[in-house]
């Protein structure tokens, strides 16, 4: 009788610990749409867009201005920035026009990239891949 109680005391806490780990993806892909609102051709490191995914709509980057000259902050290549919803992050490299996007939600952690150029459509659709292990 004592042995089964001892086994339960070992197994039960282990099952609760597993639920507190990072969420695994419920699907391999997360469909997303991007509406590019602004790409400054003179300052190629200036871009703003809206990101739409299942259950999330957010502006990237959030509306913040430099206090010194009331202009949008120039983005640095390979630096990751938060969107208005911090569950979405992005990086933009003006040299090749690559916009990388990462989204964390209840279904897992997803990421992907698109190329933003003069020829890009107004709405860009992308399937973000599951990055949760």
UniProtKB/TrEMBL annotation:
Signal sequence, renumbered to the chain: 1-17
Keywords (A to Z) from UniProt: Signal
Name of this chain's protein: AA1-like domain-containing protein
